[in-house]
């Protein structure tokens, strides 16, 4: 096999492979995903901005790319790393191949690497920076390029919509304003399905402008990067507390927690994939969840904030959900709208509409 691409990690390890997608050099953070399906949703999920995604499932691209399954208009990752890439899909719905999509989006891919070994390395060593480059680049050259590349802190600004837009449904009951920090399309679909007209606004929209839209509820979306970088949303949420019911997912969960005075921290290698067990502390029920995040809420920092823990990750005991009953506010770290599944947690959208219904009935 003729190797033409190389992956170099900041610990000095290197891996040869064959390139697909765009023929460009890219420095980014390397993370892994354990999902067996859903690579199109992964590459179009804004939460992967500035990251190279390692897929632990060995065969990727086998069912192609379809027009209906994108989670955003962005192709978010900075790189894509697989064991075997299939550019001859078997699927009557496919419109283009994954390599073609990545080439159009200027995203480099590298195949032929033992991705399960690489996943174990990231799990043991922790998330680190990397470079996808030509096979002729030496380790010392690659490490120099990594060290001289600044870590970006504006991922949400780049992912968020630039002006507000609308997604309406038939026979609506509720009007929801969604703060777009890098929102997945299926979240909007789920809100529409639960009888919500949705107005999606940029991440830096002020609390005054949000309230001027007369929402029955406010949703805070998922998104990429360090939640402490998104000071605009944190300040907005401080001003919105106690006004109308609020629901946050993933980054939205972290931002809500920060707005109440809690703290967040970076996980060793994050949670990414559709197989994470989470316990609902009220019911004791175990949900199999889909996740995609690098940061978590510090449980000890919740003391005195008015927030209580509602869900816990069974694998590592990290906080997976918080709530403030007095303010009708709740959030979860995982993705109840996950597409493809699991679908254990879609009741949370009904919980959100239930809170809005309570307010309407008591008005």
Explain this structure.
The strands form 3 sheets. This protein has a 10-stranded mixed beta sheet, with helices on both faces. Helix 8 (231-240) crosses helix 9 (251-259). It has 363 residues and is an alpha/beta fold. The protein is built from 10 helices and 19 strands.
Could you name the key traits of this structure?
24% helix; 10 helices; 7-stranded mixed barrel; alpha/beta; 363 residues; 10-stranded mixed sheet
Short description:
The chain is α/β, with parallel strands linked by helices and 363 residues long. Helix content is 24%, strand content 31%. The radius of gyration is 20 Å and the shape is globular.
State the order of secondary-structure elements, H for helix, E for strand: EEEHEEEEHEHEHHEEHEHEHEHEEEEEH
Q: Write out the strand line-up for the largest beta sheet, numbering strands in chain order.
A: 10-12-11-13-14-19-18-17-15-16
Rounded average pLDDT:
96
Query: Poorly predicted ranges (pLDDT <50, ≥5 residues)?
Result: none
What's the number of extended β-strand segments?
19
In angstroms, what separates the terminal alpha carbons? 70 Å
Radius of gyration: 20 Å
